[in-house]
Design goal:
homodimer, 367 residues, alpha/beta, Rossmann fold, 2 domains
Chain lengths: 367, 367
């Protein structure tokens, strides 16, 4: 029986551990430096209000992949949940994604119905049209520019820490607007929040006689030898940054308890144009929890700094991907060592893609 | 180590004290004649209702200056707040600033959408157009005159104590109307109310081992000598009015507790055309405070009279500015004496400009 070490008890590490334990019937030790499992999808019950808090920002599970959905559904029941966020435009809290509903929220009926007619007659109801394309139409240039200025430009600026005039509109303006009254942020077939929280779901995934979990444990503390090491931590850290650091964007959450039943009318409200934060999340909406108080988190993007904050978003430009490739090549010289997950692959994964990636990895490398 | 006396514990005095204490590591004595700190931004909890009252009128902080926002954010958390006042026109409570939303509130759909179309096709959505300019367009002369008569003329008349026919329309009509559905009174990036009140924020600014605060203390009572005196009180008073008094407009607030949950649908409602007051402020909206009762203040403009009421608005006409200059010149003959703030500079400052002015003063004069 082979022995396996998985570094990182986040979603990728947990899913892989379960596959190895269950399908290969091998032993797995999962370690994590943090004091909790579930990585950045960790949630916990706030003591004062009993509200489930998404510590590392709002996570809404959504996928079209039935295999992924069925796999996770073995470990959790779901709160069937569609994310319908809002965005503050000109001080009004309106529908995001910007769609036909939003037109009627920010403009007069007359203006909105004129625009609606032009959009539908040009592209058809239900089309997803990049702003860049919208701009080519003189009659729709105004609305293209309006959406670009009010929804995307400043949000992108804050999110990636770039001056608004440094943003390449040909990149940002690739974002499509959805010519419909579908106010959901995602259109996937399967969407939901684990009914007892993400942490509980990951705990269930890890619950197997062949799996051992050790928290508060750094990879460097492990002296035991393993047949396989699957490292879901940062690949540059594994190699002591010998080629340099891989940059990330980070986030700071200002979590506040507020003495009123609701703070905002939906779970996530984006603030592209005001303040330095990008959005405010009100956590009780995830599981429809009741409390006379409420907990919000105000989300401030920032640079990742080693030892100061957490890695969130890999910054996937050519330079950084070239640096990642140097580490990746290095890793392939070592037998029985694999890298996986957002930090191991230096690639942002939605949760479903993280699971899908583990399935593929398992089938290709371990089965 | 130099010794500093700051006269006036309002926003300007407090910010300057913190800079001197912190960046120069010098000692500062801050005195105020009033029994409280925070000058005219002073707020307090009403005993009966527990509602936070802005004693000297509604203060909504707003700025585009990130440096000012970040500085104050060290001393307070914020209630993220957009001021969306109303105005009583023809007895209806409608959106102020007068914009496209207001058109639909005061006119029929047909009339409003005709005007909307003309305004947008002439100036473009999002334009800010002075009424004076609007008047030049024969098709828009009606709406220009309507806004001038219903929103500005009588308000200005009450505010400045002038007969309506004494108001120079070329001055008042410089006010722009905003061709948009943005119902916010301010468009600044950063807007909010200190979450625990302005007084608490100023208290935090003044909390420093090098700062001492003495209330109920007149400048004339101070016999001690200081290396620097920064006087944030009225410059004419400092010189015993030897060239004459600098005129101000004043306000009287009729503060009433009302036995119903809400009095009006927004924090500030302007009354340009009826009564002698200019506006009614309902204080519970600032911090979204809950109470079965509510507190309003009805704001009556009046002349400033020495010993009778407070100085609010400097009246910045040529004559008064010439008088101010005489005092200012006089002050520059005295070493180590500086004047600052609304009363010291005889200049109305929004709160952010007051802070900005102190930053500049500190960098230029003291650093």
């Amino acid at each position: 029986m082979k022995s396996n070490l998985i570094v990182g008890a986040g979603l990728s590490g947990a899913v892989l551990a379960s596959l190895i334990a269950d399908k290969l019937n091998e032993e797995v030790l999962v370690i994590d430096r943090k004091e909790h499992i579930a990585g950045n999808i960790y949630d916990y019950k706030d003591k004062e209000t009993n509200i489930t808090i998404h510590k590392y920002g709002p996570h809404i599970f959504h996928t079209n992949n039935k295999k992924v959905w069925d796999y996770l559904s073995k470990y959790t029941k779901w709160n069937f949940f569609f994310l319908k966020p809002n965005v503050i435009i000109e001080g009004n809290c309106v529908t995001l994604p910007f769609n036909l509903t939003t037109l009627y929220e920010v403009f007069s009926n007359k203006m909105a119905s004129d625009l609606e007619e032009k959009l539908i007659s040009t592209y058809g109801y239900g089309a997803k049209v990049p702003i860049l394309k919208l701009r080519e139409n003189p009659e729709l240039e105004f609305i293209a520019q309006y959406i670009y200025e009010n929804v995307f430009k400043n949000y992108t600026s804050k999110q990636w820490g770039l001056e608004p005039d440094k943003i390449d509109p040909s990149v940002t303006a690739r974002v499509p607007i959805y010519i419909s009254f579908d106010n959901r942020y995602f259109q996937d077939k399967y969407q939901g929040i684990p009914l007892f929280g993400y942490t509980k779901m990951v705990e269930n995934i890890l619950k197997h006689k062949n799996i051992k979990v050790k928290l508060n444990t750094d990879f460097k503390e492990i002296t035991q030898k393993f047949d396989r090491v699957i490292y879901c931590g940062a690949i540059d850290e594994y190699f002591d940054y010998k080629f340099g650091q891989l940059p990330y964007r980070s986030l700071n959450f200002d979590i506040q308890t507020i003495n009123q039943e609701y703070y905002q009318k939906t779970v996530v409200v984006n603030y592209p144009n005001n303040y330095d934060f990008t959005r405010i999340c009100e956590h009780k909406y995830f599981l429809n929890e009741k409390s006379s108080k409420t907990v919000i988190s105000v989300e401030y993007p920032q640079s990742f700094e080693l030892g100061k904050n957490e890695r969130y978003y890999p910054i996937a430009n050519d330079e950084n991907l070239a640096l990642y490739k140097k580490y990746k090549d290095e890793s392939q010289k070592i037998d029985g060592l694999y890298f996986l997950g957002r930090l191991g692959d230096y690639k942002y994964y939605n949760m479903d893609l993280a699971v899908e990636r583990v399935f593929e990895f398992f089938d290709k490398e371990l089965k």
